[in-house]
């Protein structure tokens, strides 16, 4: 059963006379939510406030040109009550709840963008998630082209810091299942803070082309907090490489395996590639935990299989990066593979430059962009960097077969746009523990000023990281962190498997 299977419907405040006219023909149309037929919504009550124009200055902060709303409405939605299929939103049933979130849903101003289908939403935070709420019903026809609607979402428990939004377009009975182009969802928290969750994609079959997207999407929190004006398409060229820990080479004669789009060395594995059916690019890296070797377990099998499944998901056109990671982890665990691994995966919609990322552990990536206001040559600045997620020093977050392993839900999530000229550098801790941001940025700048492409830049970064790992006197991110963690002076790099990927946006 899909998430829409257990929903209640909510009435929208619309003009009373318009509601009276439409209710005769729409009130008794049944609605299917995730394949479950709900009864006619005779007892839903609607407010009488007429729709009012959107505040244009507010919209300009959250919607790019071409997606401005034609009107805005406000609705209070209630979760499904125990023992009943539908709950009235009448004021005679007050909700004694902890906090309220205000959710603004913006439909794009594109041909065929609107839909008459209702939708459902769930907010997921660091401490839990809300129930699933319905947004609109068959009568309301909320999500018209260029529209903007606000909903009050009552939350009866503390869910912590909001991390993602799951939204689903529900199916109608006896009606064409129209596609919906969702621009973004904006959420205002109980304290007044505003958070942006961009989508810029179709849910369902596009009404004006052959594009067919999923009916359900996970929306990730935008890194910069506001949408990019005039998002532009990008084309991405990538390369990857991995080398094993030098002791593994001496002891077991292990070598790195590097092919177009996939490779591994030791317990590190990576992938990169594009979907054959759409303009989707993806890349990822995983680092299996070596200490399982003492129990006769090869964590490299887990990291390699995880990256292979992620690669398959991307190739098949799965755009939702959270689903890519979750479904790949589910496969690995169902296959009975033992051990544990860190993982970092990102996707880029090349039509808009929209990047989504999931990171669990101490692998990660950074995005370098051309520095503003710098003349002559090619200079870069760090636009974004993932956090290294550790329980304590040397103990990263990791998914695995054991009861104490972390979950995909524990990952850091990121969403923002990349542009022509940006360079994504991704790597395992073999890269990030041995090279600081400045080291990576300087090497990329020198390489790009020589006109080098992704493959030679990857090779140069691998060599630089390897040299740093073998230098006992060098100050590295790892030695500085160890000095702080143990209150003793450490120096030198950390010998390890090293995986590096470089993606150049043009």
From TrEMBL:
Keyword Nucleotide-binding: no
Reaction it catalyzes: O-phospho-L-threonyl-[protein] + H2O = L-threonyl-[protein] + phosphate; O-phospho-L-seryl-[protein] + H2O = L-seryl-[protein] + phosphate
Name by which UniProt lists this protein: Protein phosphatase
Cofactor: Mn(2+); Mg(2+)
Class in the EC hierarchy, top level: hydrolase
Keyword field: Hydrolase, Magnesium, Manganese, Metal-binding, Protein phosphatase
UniProt cross-references to InterPro entries, sorted A to Z: PLAT/LH2_dom, PLAT/LH2_dom_sf, PPM-type-like_dom_sf, PPM-type_phosphatase-like_dom, PPTC7
Stretches assigned to the PPM-type phosphatase domain: 251-505
E.C. number(s) listed in UniProt: 3.1.3.16
Tagged with keyword Manganese: yes
Membership in a protein family: Belongs to the PP2C family.
Domain PLAT residues, every copy: 99-217
UniProt-recorded Gene Ontology molecular function terms: metal ion binding; protein serine/threonine phosphatase activity
Source organism: Dunaliella tertiolecta
